[in-house]
Amino acid sequence: MDDKSLFTMLTMAKGIGWSVHMFLIFSLHRPDVLPVGNMGVRKGVQFLYGLEELPRPSQMEPLCEKWKPYRSVGSWYMWRFLEAKGAPSAGAAVALVDGSTTESQQMQQQQQQQQPKQLQLVDPINDIVNLG
């Protein structure tokens, strides 16, 4: 079954949406899936192409056209790119109602500031088995 048909069938089930892209990439090992609504991929594309604003999901297809037929790999690199840039994760953005951070969050921030950021590139073709 092709990706488009599979996506249409799976999204018919209530509660399944963006996770279909993750299923296609990580469970079915489909090499050409672009999760256009994924914030990490969108933010990575913004950094990569030096865009002033976060690209809308409708803009992602044309921006990532040259990644075909390996847009899953490109998405994976966008997530790693964000990690290397030190972009805050969703968990790090959580704060208490009064605006203060927890003790563990403060410790984590201190550790991150002390450790130098190091870009680590890997070969996704050889590191992700059965990719396609």
The proportion of strand residues reads under 5%
- Largest sheet: number of strands, sense, barrel closure: none
Query: What is the end-to-end distance?
Result: 13 Å
Q: In angstroms, what is the radius of gyration?
A: 17 Å
Mean pLDDT: 77
Helix tally equals 7
Shape: globular
Order of SSEs = HHHHHHH
Descriptive terms for the model:
132 residues; mainly alpha; 7 helices; globular
Structure description:
It is a single chain. With 132 residues, the protein is mainly alpha-helical. Helices cover 51% and strands 0% of the residues. The chain contains seven helices and no strands. Helix 3 (39-49) packs across helix 5 (71-85). The longest helix is centred in the middle third of the chain and has 15 residues, at 71-85. It is globular, with a radius of gyration of 17 Å. It starts with a helix and ends in a 5-residue tail after the last helix. The relative contact order is 0.12. Mean pLDDT is 77; it is low at 89-101.
Strands, helices and their partners?
Elements: H1 3-11, H2 19-27, H3 39-49, H4 57-63, H5 71-85, H6 103-114, H7 124-127
